[in-house]
Amino acid sequence: MSVRIEPPRTTRRPRFASQRPVSPPVPISEDFAPAPSPDGRRVAFLSDRAGTPGVWVCEVDAGAPVALPVGDEPVLALSWSPDGQWLACVVAPGGAPRTELWVLRPDGTRRHQVAGFGRRSAALAGWLPHGAVLAVTETDEHGQALLVDAATGHRRVLAQGDLLTLLDVTPDAGTALLRRGPRNARWLEVLDVATGVRRRLFPDTGRGSTDQGWFGPDGTSVLARTDAYSELSALVRVDLTRPEQPPTRLAGRSDAELEHVAASADGQRGALLWNTYGGRSELSLLDFASSVQRAVTAPGEVLGDAVFAADGGLLCLTAQGPVQPREVWLVDPSTGAPRPLRPDTGVPRTDDAGVAPQLVDLRARDGLPLSGWLYRPAGPGPWPTAISLHGGPEAQERPGYNPLFQALVAQGIAVFAPNVRGSSGFGRSFVAADNLAGRYGAIADVAACADFLVDAGVARPGQLGVLGRSYGGYLVLAVLVNFPGLFAAGVAECGISDFRTFFAGTEPWIAAAAVSKYGDPHRDAELLRDLSPLTHIDRLDVPVLLIHGANDTNVPAGESAQVAQALADRGVPHGHLVLAGEGHDFLSRTNAEAARTATTGWLTRHLAATATLVG
């Protein structure tokens, strides 16, 4: 086991643990999901500065952003039409996983809904190159790929099927690119729209997943990000005129996963976001014709939301770090020089800069290499310590902006945020290592983290807490029932407590996609019963705070309610916070802060109380 201390590469100056104690930071607004106008002169983006994510538009290098009237519901995604006449918004009514697609003029007029009616959920793939026709996926029990005219709402269905997502359409709408399959086992299909004939893009390798793809500029090739041919995701090209040939590798690294590719509208260049070990981002620009790749200075530790303006003359993305909230940055593709969209970007907007995390390596109980980010309070350890578990599980703990971690550290609580098996960013074998019965190993990884923290002098025995949301909320409950006595308190946010009730209550497309990760609710019923924390709830005897969104239809709110009832029946101390107007993700700043405050207070109170018992 070893500890690596690496200062974050951020545009702000962090405070390290050896300096004076910090004050709890006041969470501030974040800007994200940029959508540049076709000519690159304006950028629309999402911001929660008004309380919930809404749409704002800003002239590049001129003036303050202006809010557009998009209603009171939170907006999740945004895109500007190639003709410049429309903005498309993915809206989440009540914060729930079922989403709607609305369009409006860039001046805020003519707002109307075009997809996601009734029980269907809408996702935007993009626009056809000319005019204002949207490529959309609608999902309920099944998925359907369709084209929608932004002005008239006219709909044309291209394909239907289970676990289907539309990724791209050729300019003549004659051929569509579809993604099929469950989590971590997806593949691409090319659809001849006229005949309805589909063919798989490349042969099934029996491993890996292909999650992103688009047509080349002449429609005779497909570019795809996949780990079907390598341990770490890479970029490949498939020649549609010679399907017998294996894919050509365009970009890949042995030290980093290719996380995302943003292609310019003319298909000449791409922006590549690389996920290096531990979760830091690197950015490069790739010329598809020459395969020449050029590194670009990253304006933050974690990058995302990369998108080109239609003319290819401007690249937009978001950057964040431990003390750097998500903000929109602009990159000139010709020079690679980044600059902020907002004049005050890069200037601290909180009273304190916060603390920098340290990247830690350790081993699981079965020897598997693990890692995580350690946030240390000021002064010498050991400290009361909380292990924070991310969602997914195919997500990753990265050195991004997290005001909860800073608030806990300000209270004298160390935070360790690990990437247990099943996390993304470490290759296809690692992300699949928790599938089905492998989940026992993921649960044991949390216990290994606790052992390591005590052995390393970070944590005091008896003063360990555990918290997490979504899949992390499930892991909180699972580790508390599987390793009683290891933790003194827990906070489980939006977590599965019983796989039987989860599969019965979640959205049908979520259930279908989850089988590859968790197991089939019928074929693997006994495994899922044993892996369900509610099955062993009699072993849970420490204070637990349960937090859930009232409108959550991903992990239904009943998953927390049945744990609260079971603990109440046994007289186990617990809290149960249900946030009105929220779904699986807490999108209102007020509700998100309520959850943070409750979590910080719960862990501070119960870990401090434990300290008096252990001396």
Description:
The chain is α+β, with helices and mostly antiparallel strands and 615 residues long. It has a domain at 358-611: Rossmann fold, CATH 3.40.50. 17% of the residues lie in helices and 36% in strands. The chain contains 9 helices and 37 strands. Strands 1-30-31-33-32-34-35-36-37 form a 9-stranded mixed sheet, with helices on both faces. Strand 7 (87-91) and strand 8 (100-104) form a beta hairpin. Helix 1 runs parallel beside helix 9 (589-614). The longest helix has 26 residues, at 589-614. The protein is globular. 52% of the residues are buried. Residues 1-24 have low confidence and may be disordered.
Concise account of the structure shown:
With 615 residues, the protein is an alpha+beta fold. It is 17% helix and 36% strand.
What helical percentage do the residues reach? 10-25%
Q: Report the oligomer.
A: single chain
At the fourth level of CATH, the homologous superfamily of the domain at 358-611 is Alpha/Beta hydrolase fold, catalytic domain
Which CATH first-tier class of the domain at 358-611 would you pick? Alpha Beta
How is the main sheet built? 9 strands, mixed
The chain-level structural class is alpha+beta
Provide key terms for this protein.
four-stranded antiparallel β-sheet; Rossmann fold; alpha+beta; 17% helix; 9 helices; nine-stranded mixed β-sheet; 615 residues; serine protease
